[in-house]
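Morning!

This is the sequence you dropped in the shared folder:
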Amino acid sequence: MPKRAAAHAVAAARAYGIGRAYGPDMTSHSHVAILMATFNGSPFLSAQLHSFLAQSHQNWSLWVSDDGSSDETRAIIADFQAAHPDRRIILRDGPGSGSTLNFMTLLCDPTIPADYVALSDQDDIWLPDHLSRALGRIDEFKGTAVLYGARTIIAGPDMDRLGMSPLFRKPPGFRNALVQSIAGGNTMLLNAKARSIVVRAGLPKNAVCHDWWLYQILSGAGAEIIYDPEPTVLYRQHGANQIGSNFSAAARLARIAGLLGGRYRDWNNRNITALEEVSEILTPRNRALLSGFSDLRRQRGPSAIATLRRLGLFRQTSLGSISLAAAAFLGLL
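The structure's back. Tokens below.
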């Protein structure tokens, strides 16, 4: 996208009037490392890069891990580097094993210095107060490991507004994280204490996706989890989205069908294996909860429903909770 078009996209983001600042930026001294995983992202990359420049919080560096793009992605990053020599903008080769390991390799790299880290997809647009709002919310929990995630505005390829991601109202935590991912990685920020937990856990070999893994490992370790009902990112939907949003009724029903069709059981197999490999990081209560969830998955019928209730596992919506109970009853967890 040409620079003028990118600036226009950022102006359009401001016009939504939703991503309002979380008061004055009291964290301007705090350095944020923006971690971006790329792969053949040239059609939309420039707009996202220019939305970084439009942030009200300007103390940031950019670390891009490219997984072998064959389009103009690397050239766009190089041009961005050249145009902003005052910024620390690093482009490096990714592991070439998909977006989850690409992001996690960045997160677990101790040579990337920062007070906070923010994850960025290659095809979205950040609202101007994305960083300042997230930092303000995280700063409410001084001395604690914190993971921040938020709702998003769902937009089409040309940034026409399509809707909003679901509004989740139940408090986030490990009982929810075991069975549901609620905030996209494209909205996530971690403080240094939360990142140190992630680094200690290392690269997950089996986890389904990086954002769900971060929710699981950090809530399991006792970190504070913030789910912000205020959207801070324009989440662009297009034909090449790896996962995409579940804001439409059809998309949600498709995910529930996956839950009942065996895909969800495979996801749980992978996530449980990853968590068990680093179970020493979990709190004693959450280790017991993980063990209970593993036992639950060997049950079915009324006993499975009883165990599900005893463990207190839940999804964020009524329909999701019904589908979770149905999967437990049928032995599909």
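Headline: Residues 263-277 form the longest helix (15 residues).

More detail when I'm at my desk.
O.
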